[in-house]
């Protein structure tokens, strides 16, 4: 694994947001003898007002915090709202650039690896000192709701071309990004396997979950416009004896009006990452309930690997990356989803549990970061 480097990570998610590949990799790199500066995205005051728990450090001033030895968290000051407009986006990115340059100098990150997730930083990357540029592409950014598709497409194309090496989490992303850079590699998402597999047998049930009747069908993750809440409604109405439990923050773009008053649908809100495995352990069947569209066809949901590592049966909508997993039940329609849940509830869980955990173990974050490190070290030589 990479060691002895300074790494500046420009993230699309706050450090305090849901735990994903970004935080996992940077944590591990800091533990392996690298110095890491994790840069939160620049936001306007509006997202903080909606979800203050995700942006505790964002103020009118930049904030640097030492998370642990060799891992620093830099939170830029507030930017302007309406950043989908190119001029405002450029202004905000200029604020972020100045912030990074200032703390890069103060911390002595003189020749770092730049490890970026946000295409918008293409506005300023050519003004930063670095020895290698890594673009870790985890989403089809131009397809996200509310973004300026034309501008983000242009910025990402520039970023890919400027990068020394690019990683993608989905095979469909590999096909589209390789047109702009020959050094593009597929490295899927993964799981903190030992945490989730351990919790599959060792944790007692949470008090909150004891109040919710079984069987419990559970979903973990942010609830947004691409979460198929019509599917949730369909399942809840089709079998009132099932409890549908959604663990995660509800985004301002999600319309939950149709399901929030269903007696067997439970929105339990955001939970600290440390206790999420306990919620998964309390589910009888785990769900992946994305709407199938241009954006979601190119995602590789971390939650799937976490469900499998816990040994839980998983029913998912038909997404290309999820279909590669042999132990996941894939549903082609709402009625098929209902049938697959019924089948999952009746399966021989002792046999299937070990098969699911075995499959998840090959996607440990450690193994995936080793793959990435090998490619980066080859480019550094």
Topology, number of strands:
14
CATH architecture of the largest domain: 3-Layer(aba) Sandwich
Oligomer: single chain
CATH class of the largest domain: Alpha Beta
How are the strands ordered across the major sheet? 3-4-2-1-5-6-7-8
CATH level 4 superfamily of the largest domain: Glycogen Phosphorylase B
Structural class: alpha/beta
What percent of residues are in strands? 15-25%
* Helical coverage, percent range: 25-40%
Largest sheet: 8 strands, mixed
- Give the end-to-end Cα distance, rounded to a whole number of Å: 15 Å
The arrangement of helices and strands along the chain is EHEHEEHEEHEHEHHEHEEHEHEHEHHH
Describe this structure in words.
Strands 3-4-2-1-5-6-7-8 form an 8-stranded mixed sheet, with helices on both faces. The chain has a 6-stranded parallel sheet with strand order 11-10-9-12-13-14, sandwiched between helices. The two termini are 15 Å apart. Helix 6 packs across helix 10 and helix 10 (302-309) crosses helix 13. The model has no long low-confidence stretch (mean pLDDT 96). The chain is globular. It has 2 domains: 6-190 and 365-380, Rossmann fold (3-Layer(aba) Sandwich); 193-361, 3-Layer(aba) Sandwich (Rossmann fold), CATH 3.40.50. 42% of the residues are buried. It is of the alpha/beta class and 381 residues long. The chain is 38% helix and 17% strand. The chain has 14 helices and 14 strands. The longest helix is centred in the first third of the chain and has 22 residues, at 86-107.
């Amino acid at each position: 694994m990479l060691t002895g480097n300074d790494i500046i990570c420009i993230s699309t998610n706050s450090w305090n947001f849901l735990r994903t590949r970004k935080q996992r990799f940077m944590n591990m790199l800091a533990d392996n003898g690298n110095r890491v500066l994790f840069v939160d995205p620049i936001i306007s005051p509006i997202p903080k007002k909606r979800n203050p728990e995700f942006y505790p450090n964002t103020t009118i001033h930049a904030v640097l915090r030492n998370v642990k030895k060799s891992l620093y968290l830099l939170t830029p000051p507030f930017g302007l709202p309406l950043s989908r407009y190119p001029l405002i986006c450029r202004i905000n990115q200029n604020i972020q650039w100045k912030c990074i340059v200032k703390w890069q100098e103060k911390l002595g990150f003189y020749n770092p690896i730049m490890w970026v997730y946000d295409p918008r930083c293409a506005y300023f990357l050519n003004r930063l000192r670095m020895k290698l540029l890594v673009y870790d592409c985890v989403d089809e950014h131009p397809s996200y709701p509310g973004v300026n598709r034309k501008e983000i497409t242009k910025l990402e194309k520039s970023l890919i071309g400027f990068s020394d090496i690019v990683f993608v989490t989905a095979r469909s992303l590999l096909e589209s990004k390789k047109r702009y850079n020959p050094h593009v590699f597929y490295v899927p998402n993964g799981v903190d396997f030992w945490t989730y597999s351990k919790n599959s047998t060792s944790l007692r049930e949470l008090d909150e979950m004891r109040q919710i009747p079984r069987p419990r069908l559970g979903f973990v993750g942010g609830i947004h416009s691409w979460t198929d809440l019509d599917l949730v409604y369909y399942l809840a109405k089709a079998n009132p004896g099932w409890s549908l439990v959604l663990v995660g923050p509800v985004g301002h773009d999600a319309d939950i009006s149709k399901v929030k008053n269903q007696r067997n649908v439970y929105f339990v809100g955001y939970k600290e990452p440390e206790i999420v495995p306990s919620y998964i352990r309390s589910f009888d069947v785990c769900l992946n309930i994305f709407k199938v569209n241009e954006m979601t066809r190119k995602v590789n949901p971390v939650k799937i690997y976490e469900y499998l590592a816990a040994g839980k049966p998983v029913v998912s909508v038909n997404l290309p990356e999820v279909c590669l997993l042999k132990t996941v039940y894939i549903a082609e329609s709402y009625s098929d989803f209902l049938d697959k849940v019924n089948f999952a509830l009746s399966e021989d869980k002792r046999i299937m549990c070990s098969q699911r955990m075995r499959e998840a173990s090959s996607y440990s974050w450690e193994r995936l970061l080793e793959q990435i490190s090998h490619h980066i070290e080859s480019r550094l030589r």
